[in-house]
Amino acid sequence: MVTADTPVPDGSGSPDGSGTPATSADATGLCGFIDSSPSPFHACATTAARLRTAGFRELDEADGWPAEPGRYFLVRGGSLIAWQSRARSTDTNVPAPFPARPFRIIGAHTDSPNLRVKQHPEIDSAGWRMVGLEPYGGAWLNSWLDRDLGVSGRLAVAAPSGGGVEHRLVRVDEPVLRVPQLAIHLSEDRKGVQLDPQRHVDAVYGLGAWEDGAAGGFLGRLAARAGVPAESVLGWELMTHDLAPSAVTGADGELVSAPRLDNLATCYAGLSALLDTVGPKVSVGDGADSGGVADPGAADPVLVLFDHEEVGSMSARGAFSDLLGTVLERIVLARGGGRDDYLRAIAGSVCVSGDMAHATHPNYPERHEPRHRIRAGGGPVLKVNQNLRYASDATGAAEFALACERAGVPLQRYVHRADLPCGSTIGPITASRTGITTVDVGAPQLAMHSARELMAASDVAAYAAALAAFLAG
Hints:
23% of the residues lie in helices and 26% in strands. It is of the alpha/beta class. The strands form four sheets. A nine-stranded mixed β-sheet has the order 1-2-3-13-4-14-18-16-17, sandwiched between helices. A five-stranded mixed β-sheet has the order 11-12-20-19-15.
């Protein structure tokens, strides 16, 4: 097995012998994906666009689903699930478990900690027009100060024809908001300001006072940008995003500086892995719509991207919802199977729960477990916690270790300090909700939950290659 301390042999994981992992993912592609995805809703839209290009067809949960194999996806709010349901093997000597063929699943989340818009956002204070914001998830609040912020999310609006609700994505990539820091001369303690999430994170929008009437308010102005009347806006989920673009940085281009690496880096790597696994789109006559013929005994690949992980996943589209289990069961039913076939498929399935991992911080090495140092650029990370904050067990760990070996990338193993509280992921939720063997993994990064995060550029391809090798089995 390849470990973090073992050099990767020349040509490992690459068909051309170059030593570069076999994947379409790279640091530049990740930057573009992140910049196109300022909110979970935009992350789903960005992912859906790439899936359609690869021949995936969008389904509606309220409709009957096609019986024929193929490439499909669906979107539920800020969550998305995509899969390829492959045809029965034509080899009669292969005991392929059809329709109880298992799944190999990559799970991630589309949301990131940020500042979100309150329900009555307009505030007048000391001659300033302000927008009321509140933290979402474990946002590292000081990192959001003195940044040019845009706004993104979705509006729920009354349908023009009446009697229904439509959703409109909205995105303002202009510096319309800024949360100003307190001047050092006014601080009680010049070593730092203790931020109150109720009083200190509202954003400056402009000078003067807000106009009366819906059209003159903050939401009215966003409605105008979305091309809808202000009075038609019935609900909204709006958030801020840092306007500085993602970038490949460092003296030798070795780093990626970007917002929302946790966890859009995994969404991007997982999407790249799925597309690399299913291959390019081919014509209908060549079997694209049939999803191709499955390899003997192969599992069907699935990518699921959940919203609301950063706030506990307890929602209609979070990991605690019925989204994953319902879709997997309907895939089995579409194959012609029944409840017993579904349970058999689940019993043979494996899930990789991907979420970013803590690289050892060069300024705070003492905050890390001393025998489990994680190196940026050192490859994917297997995360283990004895108190099950991560879902990894021996079986799941072995599955991912083999995937890294097949991909020719090194594997690092992470354990949190026993005297510090450990974060969690969708992994334990997925394992307990479905009974599927689940392993928690990630790619190393610094500054997790900051408005701006940092990772090694080389880890983008290594992470995606390992996930692709996992899907391929």
